[in-house]
Amino acid sequence: MHHAERPVGMIAMSRSVTAAVLPADLMSRLTATLRIPGTEAVETFDDPVARRGMENVEILITGWSCPPLTAAVLDAAPKLRAVMHAAGSVKAHVGPEVFARGIVVSSAADANAEPVADFTLAVITLAGKRSFGLARQYAAGRFAPFEQRIGNDDRVVGVVGASRIGRRVIVRLHAAGYRVLVADPYLDPARAAELGAELTDLDDLCRRCDVLTLHAPQLPETHHLVDERRLALLRDGALVVNTARGTLVDTNALTLACASGRIDACLDVTEPEPLPAGHPLFQLPNVWITPHLAGVQGSEVRRLGEFAVAEVERFIAGEPLRGTVRADQLDQLA
């Protein structure tokens, strides 16, 4: 491909994360494939410089804080053929009008899914040993090296949502020797079995599991999916793990259930987020809360850029994309 034939590209994301998402080596790969007039990311499509660039842009590389691709923005970009998102969910900036114009959309959500699945398995494993509570007791002067109530053998893990992350969690849990149940309205029993899980409904899953781990998208129908009634179905001593979205769990109901000592929780996401300082959940010895860090962080962020740059290369070469997002998937995506 001659230098002049490279398609025109534009980067639209928060400038504060651009260097982490697209460090020098990835930017070099990108500019070898695309002509990007000025490699500084655009944070708004309203300024004159961005508007002028939009006239010729064919491929948009988006990321965190990309402004919405409204009809007016798309009108200003008549040559736009593809949106390559160097992050997870596209819902904040891509709507039906993008697909209506035949624009191809790709997301790097697969690159974000791996660290979340790894984090989830690690949390389940550590919590099965009651590591978090016993660490607090140890710090307070109680050394208890042999506890009868701990261990991961024969534990049943219920996975809510066979999502991109949920499927990876099931595979990891199965390989680690856990018995796995899964509840997902879009999954069939044969596919569940292939992954290494038994398909069941959510209420039955709650009754039978030792660990409830959430991997469903944030949708109107999943709001407070785990409410007071479902928490009451859980066995005494059960663990709730949430690395998905805080709104999937009724925080007040969870706080009461954990405060009673009946169940434990490990939360990487909360409702509200951030959880206010001094919230009762922070005070409970059987609750462990992290600040939304299961997904790509720090050195891992380049995975998102790497995925997006490879998608650009595949698109220009006419090869199948690996992160294609279809219009009919928008309603089920996180």
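(the above was protein one; protein two follows)
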Amino acid sequence: MKQKLLLGLFLLAGISFSQAQGLPENPEPGKCYVKCITKDEFKEVEETLQVYPAYTTLQVVPAVYKTVEETVLVKEASKKYVYTPAVYETVEVPYVKKEGRTDLRVVPATFGKDSNTYEVYPKTSGWEYKILEDCPSVNKEDCVAACFVEYPAQFRDVPFTTLASDATTNGIPVDEQSTTYKKRVIKTPARMDEIEIPAEYTTITRQVVETPATTTSVTVPAKYETVTRTVLAKKGGITTWEEVECELLNPTVLPIFYELASARLTPASKKVIDETLLPLLNDSNVSIEIMSHTDSRGNDDYNKSLSQQRANSVVNYLVSKGVSRSRLTARGFGESRLTNRCSNGVDCSEAEHQRNRRTEFRVINN
């Protein structure tokens, strides 16, 4: 009560001073005011820029291989010697006593009969002179008559023999004659007898070039990128005064507690932000400072970084809700502002450590 009274007296005494200094007019006793300078307003525009030109490249089409199999020698043929008498066994070996053959039987040629008509004398014509009978003239030439006479051609049929089919042969197979002979073969090699050890082979696979490597020309299109630029939409700088509750000017603890070594906001923490900070920011133009802390466990530098990450988590969440980042300040204090005795080396419960993993906020002038 005493503090409120002093504050009221100070406000009454300072009315004329506030007018001279550009302070809020007609302030209410017990109220606090923060000066808010309107921020520049920005908007984002998108532009499409060519970030890489079109060009032509050569692409190598690799050679195509195929797999082939080859039989290779892996052990050369050799000889060995044994020193025991040979043991023989008798086997029957089949062989062809008389090879098969094919006998040939001759099929004689066959003939036919035919005939052709041939012209043996051609058709003829010409003038013939005849002496008329009973010619009264002594000179017979006086009784000569010229006649044009034509004789037909003369033909004769000539028979001949034709070949109906030429002589051929028919094959008559005769089966081979097989039999066997007995042969004594070595069952167990004798000592000091030379034994041939055959060569050994194996099949290997290898790859050979089926199609040599080639190149193809490929046109790479230009690359474009849409760039979002922030441009000034409205110039700020106008000073206004916002009435706030006085306790908001001091650090206020938000009931946001983090897991050990984590900056993740839980759904419960997001709900606290929605119910506490968002209404304050949406209903006024004030700016706030987010202050995050850690417990004493762990490296000091690590805790400093972790606390900054925790403050950034709150700021980023508020930005995702539409609050301008220019109205938000994130500060991490690490383990430098513990709320209890749980400093380095002090044995504390998990609940006591958790109270130090906190986030605070306060309203600030901007």
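Reviewer note on protein two: The longest strand covers residues 41-52.
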